[in-house]
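Incident log, structure service

09:12 report received: a user says their structure output differs between two submissions of the same chain.
09:20 pulled the input from the user's history:
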Amino acid sequence: MSTSLNAERRSADLAALTSGEVVDVLVIGGGVTGAGVALDAASRGLTVALLEANDLAAGTSRWSSKLVHGGLRYLAKGDVGLAAESAVERGVLMTTTAPHLTRTLPQLVPLHPPVSARDAALTFAGLVAGDGLRRAARTPTDLLPGPRRISAAESRALAPGLRAAGLRGGLLSFDGQLVDDARLVVALARTAAGLGARIVTRARVSAVAPDAVEVVDGRTGMAARIRSRVVVNATGVWAGTLVPSVRLRPSRGSHLVLDAGAVGCGTTSLTVPIPGSFGRFALVLPQDDGRVYIGLTDEPVDEIPEVPTVPEADVDFLLDVASSVLETRLTRADVLGSFAGLRPLVDLPGASGRSADLSRHHAVLTEDKVVTVVGGKLTTYRRMAADAVDAAVDLAGLPAGPSRTKALPLVGAAPRSRLSTLDAPRRLVARYGTEAPTVAAMGLLDPDLGREVAAGVTAAEVIWAVRHEGALDVEDVLHRRTRIGLVDRDAAAARPAVESLVARALLGLVAR
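09:34 re-ran on a clean worker, output below:
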């Protein structure tokens, strides 16, 4: 079956679901966990439907730090189990599931005062322990080399913007980075669709029963009932609105977007110790589009808005911490944009008031024939999904074997040796994998499609997003299929061209 998602397929899938078809597993939520659940269930041979109120990756999944990390922070807290799980899942993502969407990220802990020799030694011990988990997970050393101490001169060679005064060297390690978290979600959904899953966005679930959900089509306003043998609630911070017994304590993670030239970290990320909080760091994360993300905060929130915003206090905090290791102080004038995501942390009895101290373990909860999966983090989405489907299979007595996704490549995935030989620009390969030559060819065959609508984004990519990646309007393209929307001025400049291309692509679908 085709992996393409588009308006035509959405209409057909919704029509089938509302005409009486009963699926084995109905997933609510189109973030990384929900898409992962849909793929896991479909790969076991179950019939699956995924319903998302807005767009794929419209919620928390597009607001991550875009790291595939081994969990140094969890080691610092003594949670070896979660760190080991993270290391295993990082290896799966980088070697099998999505080599095209992941890359090796050098990480440098600069050693300035007030980082003491003792703190530096403890941090390096944690890096060595993390590398031991990497070896246990059998992630190759040529993909993620081991950590080492480096001199002040080498530290500044890797990150020229570092403050020279007081710099006595650095701790260099390597972790995984996602090219784009939203593109990972789209790849998961498309892979599930290729296995027969029905993926329907703009379908808001208003009520959940053990064997059905009430849904409203966001495009027509039509209300309908969709039946299933078991429901999986994977709506993240909104899980409690569908299953009131689920108790969460959401935490806000804020990031700033800056130009790489203002920071001067090259291609090496900086892990900046937060004064007075051993084991907590701010991150300066270079992106391949010439931007840098600085994050992240960890603050409890009471309100759950559709799209979180970054408060002024978080802007000041992140600029201050990042500037503490840089030669030039960063100011608000350097900030091009910002974004924040809400983590769905599980509210456990006896947990402290600080969200930073809450467990990042996921939880799978069952009530009637509804399975809710919450907590966790992006790196471990596959394990979360497998556990949720295991619970759903047991709860509904479905005929299915164990999870198969550990060895299941996503759309576009291939060994790195093959990806390096593809006849397409490197930037396209990093986003589309084996489909990159096709996207590139669209621009060669039609020069209009080869033109950029924003820095590094071609018109062909907009058409591809509508025809194959489920984008239904200009917002889907600007904010999820590409990340043009992270900077308001970029989105405003690109909007007219993108609107025209989306309309053209949608008309093309109707004509076919």
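09:41 both user submissions now match this output. Likely a transient worker issue. Closing.
09:42 reviewer note: Residues 350-358 have pLDDT under 50 and may be disordered. The two ends are 18 Å apart (CA to CA).
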